[in-house]
Amino acid sequence: MGLDFFKLATDIKEELVDLRRDFHMHPELGYEEHRTSDKIKEFLAKEGIEYTETAGTGICGIIRGNGEKTVALRGDMDALPLEDKKSCSYVSTVKGRMHACGHDAHTTILLGAAKVLNSIKSELKGNVKLFFEPAEETTGGAKVMIDEGVLENPHVDMVFGLHVEEDLETGKIGVKTGVVNAASNPFSIKIKGKGAHGARPHTGVDPIVIASSVVLALQNIISRELPPTDPAVLTIGSIHGGTAPNIIPEEVTISGIIRVMTTEHRAYVKQRVVEVVEGIVHSMRGQCEIDIEESYPCLYNNDEAVDILLNSAEKVIGKDNITMLQSPSMGVESFAYFSLERPSAFYYLGSRNESKGIIHPAHGSLFDVDEDCLAVGVAIQCQAAFEFLK
């Protein structure tokens, strides 16, 4: 009879809950996760798991088994700048800081997987790397970790990651094949005109009128230049300019985001934003400065990795508790950096429990997770790592 990873995970459930509540009570923002990092290193050292520091507050642990293959498991560490308004014994003790996206659970699950896999390392047909990633909510520690070499020495062959999901009941998971999350490009556009009296607009160049034309024209890129079957978003989130109703200002600043589902569309939309903005602004006698940032790329699930994940999850929770997701998320996820470098599978771990009142959305001040999901996550991550190495 094979290993029962759900039993092994359930056996340490009390420890998992204690860990998660400790992290939840002491949230830290990206690249400030010093206490969190220390707790992780203390845990790994106690378990006899070697590790190195990476990406500032990040950690890369490794469990050396008997084989050449290496699989990696990833958990993110950072919290959000949000007030925790829950009423519970483990409410955040740091004002204006809260684990409102479940990274406390992700870190706990990775530590639990580390403990379980380390306890059976003589049966592992290869190595397991443990990626504790900082700053997922901001610039993404994954890219820095990769640049610092976590995917080598030994070479990582596959990566598995997860995210708690408040719309899925505990005991279930959601899996999407192909593209899972959008790529993101925040942008800003500074439009420069010539100031004038509001009663004499012909003596100036009105950047507000130019900006209005730009906002409308940019929407045509999505609605008329990309296939309607491919999700894409271009949102203008802020417009700033002017000081009084009777003054035409010198300049206006527009900022927004681009979200697309393929690297090809990402390159195309960025190019067209520049062309459209420059064309309109110059034709209306203005000048412009365009800054398009490179944020998270698209997250792609590899077919082979997904097959391993599905087979593993079926052994832990049964086929009936696996939901195949049809639509990708327009949200972004820094696990995407790993997915571009190695075959990867990223999935959603159910953490909703209406009977416990755990129904509130992520990035909200009442967010919580059903702690029964911790053992499920540990078991699936362990099973997936074990199956890949086998």
Automatic annotation (TrEMBL):
<feature type="binding site">
    <location>
        <position position="103"/>
    </location>
    <ligand>
        <name>Mn(2+)</name>
    </ligand>
</feature>
<dbReference type="Pfam" id="PF07687">
    <property type="entry name" value="M20_dimer"/>
</dbReference>
<dbReference type="GO" id="GO:0019877">
    <property type="term" value="P:diaminopimelate biosynthetic process"/>
</dbReference>
<dbReference type="GO" id="GO:0050118">
    <property type="term" value="F:N-acetyldiaminopimelate deacetylase activity"/>
</dbReference>
<feature type="binding site">
    <location>
        <position position="101"/>
    </location>
    <ligand>
        <name>Mn(2+)</name>
    </ligand>
</feature>
<protein>
    <submittedName>
        <fullName>Amidohydrolase</fullName>
    </submittedName>
</protein>
<dbReference type="Pfam" id="PF01546">
    <property type="entry name" value="Peptidase_M20"/>
</dbReference>
<feature type="domain" description="Peptidase M20 dimerisation">
    <location>
        <begin position="187"/>
        <end position="278"/>
    </location>
</feature>
<feature type="binding site">
    <location>
        <position position="137"/>
    </location>
    <ligand>
        <name>Mn(2+)</name>
    </ligand>
</feature>
<dbReference type="InterPro" id="IPR036264">
    <property type="entry name" value="Bact_exopeptidase_dim_dom"/>
</dbReference>
<keyword id="KW-0464">Manganese</keyword>
<dbReference type="InterPro" id="IPR017439">
    <property type="entry name" value="Amidohydrolase"/>
</dbReference>
<feature type="binding site">
    <location>
        <position position="363"/>
    </location>
    <ligand>
        <name>Mn(2+)</name>
    </ligand>
</feature>
<feature type="binding site">
    <location>
        <position position="163"/>
    </location>
    <ligand>
        <name>Mn(2+)</name>
    </ligand>
</feature>
<dbReference type="InterPro" id="IPR011650">
    <property type="entry name" value="Peptidase_M20_dimer"/>
</dbReference>
<keyword id="KW-0479">Metal-binding</keyword>
<dbReference type="InterPro" id="IPR002933">
    <property type="entry name" value="Peptidase_M20"/>
</dbReference>
<dbReference type="GO" id="GO:0046872">
    <property type="term" value="F:metal ion binding"/>
</dbReference>
<keyword id="KW-0378">Hydrolase</keyword>
